[in-house]
Amino acid sequence: MLGNRGLALFITAILVTGAGCDTSSTVPHISERSRTSPDLVSFETCGVLEQNLKANLTEQMRVHLLSLNENGFGPIEDDMAGGVPAPGTTGGRQEGIDYSGTNNQESGVDEGDFVKTDGYYLYVLSGNQLVIMGVPEFGQLVENVSVAIEGRPNQLLLIKEADNRSARRSVVFSTISIYDLDDSHPLRHLIEKDMGDNGYYWYTVFTKITIIDHSNPYLPQVIDELYFEGSYQTSRKVGSEVHMFTYSWTEIGDLKYWPDLPEDYYLIDPGNPLREQLWNKGISDAITYNDQLIAGLTLQDLVPRTFLVVPDGVVPYDFTAQGCNNFVIAEDSMSRGFTSIVSFDASGDEFTFEADHVVSNWSIIYASSDTVLLAEPAQDWWWYWDNDEFEEATNIHRFDSTATGSLEYSGSGRVRGTVLSQFSLSE
To answer: pTM of the entire structure?
Structure first.
């Protein structure tokens, strides 16, 4: 878990100004901006988490509509075997001596890549397959076997029992687009009720974790699978402990991003005060509509979804069923996105995992053998609209990764400006 620090978050009341029927309706305002602390705080109850996510979404949608003009200019968000000679599996081939591995930022911390080797086999993500080629002798390659991977493979990691032996398992991370799923796919049927008429969920993505056993090099077996809503960012491995990072975005398909205007609106002379009044009323009505729509959402509409593959099919996994302490947010954040961290021991006989969620903007990830750093913009672009008092800043959150299968939050800091990449971070 991310830690037990808790705070009853004060949810800033967002002013709702009712849009009347006359054309002189007052356009609702946004809340005042302030900065306090980058420290992560947990949610005492799932109700508080739901209120916070709704307030953040409401505020951002207000800024989006208020920042528009009738020409459409303004920030509009967009989201997001056999017969082949086998190499020996023992014999002292060691990474860094007999063969090279992935160029990692930190020693002892492996990073996901599309090609890996254990010194005896070469593992390559090609198309929608994991292709495994044997290396009987250095300089000799023979195709051994391939494993079909669902979706679009991104990266993989290898799990070894010893440095001088071949990999026991591999972990493949792939992107699953709901749009591409066949009608008979069980995952599609589990979420199609949420798709709605506008079809937003047709375009959402999941990251799939596929764990493959290589005990028999000629007959690799898929042993565990997990679907996690969000875009794959990166992964890290220390020993057999794996941390996968994804980012997801709270998007509601029926929200209004543009005002409804009368058919003859553009026939009115631009200098006529009626035109401005009709525009303001359209903006006010759209804000009121969005406010009411967001107020009626449930927590399950707002948080990332997860599905486990079991012998009988695919079943949902509810992270909020046991409370919401695995969700945290910076004290003054107003984000509507989630950096999710899935942690698990890939060598275990039984697949168990822990998932923690930082309500955040898009994060840059750094990891050492005992530390994970998340660097996120303190506020997103929309927070600065009509607000010149503050400059861009970056929150840096630190987690201790020494505990098996979990992360422990240890503190946060804030620096001016933005972070370029993971190589801008260190200890």
So the answer is: 0.84
